[in-house]
C-alpha cells in the first residue's frame, strides 16, 4: 500500500492523525497533515483505510498493491 | 407534488429519530425537494453515500451571498450580505487559506493537551452536583458549564462573563429569534469581543484571542475577521456540546444495557471513543440541514440539479440511513460509527470536532462511572426537548442518584 496525499486540498481537520497516529501527523503552525510513513506495514492497513475514508476533503488516496 | 416543510419537527413519541417524513425520503425519494421559510423549494439530499459524494463536489458552493442560496432563517438571510469572508461562506481555494489561519487551536495535539484540564473541570462540577440537592438539573449542573468553561478558557475570556455568552449563543442559533433580536445579540457580543481583542493585544496570554490578536498585528488577519471568528468559536462550541452531554445521557438512560456497557468499559479509551462516535451518529444534534448552492448542473440518480439551485443536506437522515448503518434506529455503542456525518462532511466539516470529541469522551467516560445510580427524576415523556434551534437539545434534564 502506498499513500498519496494531496496537500493543497487538506483542510487540516486532523482526522487522519486521530485515526492513524503513527502514519499521519499535523504540522504545528496550521495543522495541515503530514505523512510520516507513506508505505505503512499491513498491520496498519485497517487504520489507514479508515483515515482515508474519514478525511473530509478526500485528500488521501491509497494505491493498494 | 406537495413538499414537506423544512426543518421538520421530530415526533415527540420518538424524539431521537429524524422525522418519519424525512426517513421516507431517504428510502423512496433520494433527490427530493422541501419547502423552507421563504417559500422556496431547494433540493433535499438525505442518503449517506449521496452526501459523501456531493459535499466534496466542487460544483456545489457555500457562497451565501448568491441569489437562490437556501438560507437557514430569515435572520441569516438578512445578515448574509454583511458578513466578511469566513470559513463558513467561502469555497476553496480561499476557504483553504482562511481555515488554515484559524485551525491551530483545534489541532488534535492541542486539544489532547486540554484533556486533563477538561477532566478537572468535569470532576469539580460532578462534586458540586453530588453535594447539592436531589433531584438536580443535569443541563445546568454539567451540560452547559462544561463547554462554557472549556470555551472561555480556550478563548481566554473570564468565566464570570459566561451569562453573556450563553444568552448570546442561544439567541443566535434559535429559529425563534427575530432578526432584530439576533442583530442586538450579535452587536453585544461583537462589542465584547472587540474589547477582549484590545486587552489581549496589550497583554497577550496563552489563548486563542491572543493568537488572533498577534495575527491582526502581523497583518495576516483583519480585525473584523478575528472578531467574527472568535464569535463563531464561542457559539459553535457552546450549545452543541451542551446538547450532546445532556441528550447523550438521556439516550443512555433510555438504553440501560448500553449505559451499563459504557460504565463497565469507562477505563477503555477506545471503547469510550467509539461510544462517542455512535452517540454523535444516533443524536445528530445539528438537525436543520446544511446548505449549498449549485455552481453547475449536477446529475444524481437520473435527476438534474440545475446551476443556481439550492441544495439542503439533512445530516441526521444520512446518519440513520440503513444502507450505511444497518438497524440505524438502534443505539449500539459497539458498531463502527466513525463515518457518521454529525460534524458534516467535506471541506467545511466542523472545525472544533476534535475538541468536541475530547469533551464528550471525558464526559461520557466519567459521569456514569462516578454516578453509577444516575436515573431520571421524572417520566421520560416529561423531559422538555428544545427542538427550535439549529441544534436540538434539552431545556432541562431532572436527574437523581
From TrEMBL, chain A:
Gene3D superfamilies: 3.30.70.20. Residues 1-29 form the 4Fe-4S ferredoxin-type domain. GO terms for molecular function: 3 iron, 4 sulfur cluster binding; electron transfer activity; iron ion binding. It holds the Pfam family Fer4_13. It comes from the Bacteria. Keywords: 3Fe-4S, Electron transport, Iron, Iron-sulfur, Metal-binding, Transport. Its cofactor is [3Fe-4S] cluster. PROSITE patterns: 4FE4S_FER_2. Ferredoxins are iron-sulfur proteins that transfer electrons in a wide variety of metabolic reactions. This is Ferredoxin. It comes from Paractinoplanes toevensis.
From TrEMBL, chain B:
One of its GO terms (biological process) is antibiotic biosynthetic process. Residues 75-96 are annotated as: Disordered. SUPFAM superfamilies: Cytochrome P450 (SSF48264). Keywords: Heme, Iron, Metal-binding, Monooxygenase, Oxidoreductase. GO terms for molecular function: heme binding; iron ion binding; monooxygenase activity; oxidoreductase activity, acting on paired donors, with incorporation or reduction of molecular oxygen. PROSITE patterns: CYTOCHROME_P450. The keyword Cytoplasm does not apply. Belongs to the cytochrome P450 family. This is Cytochrome P450.
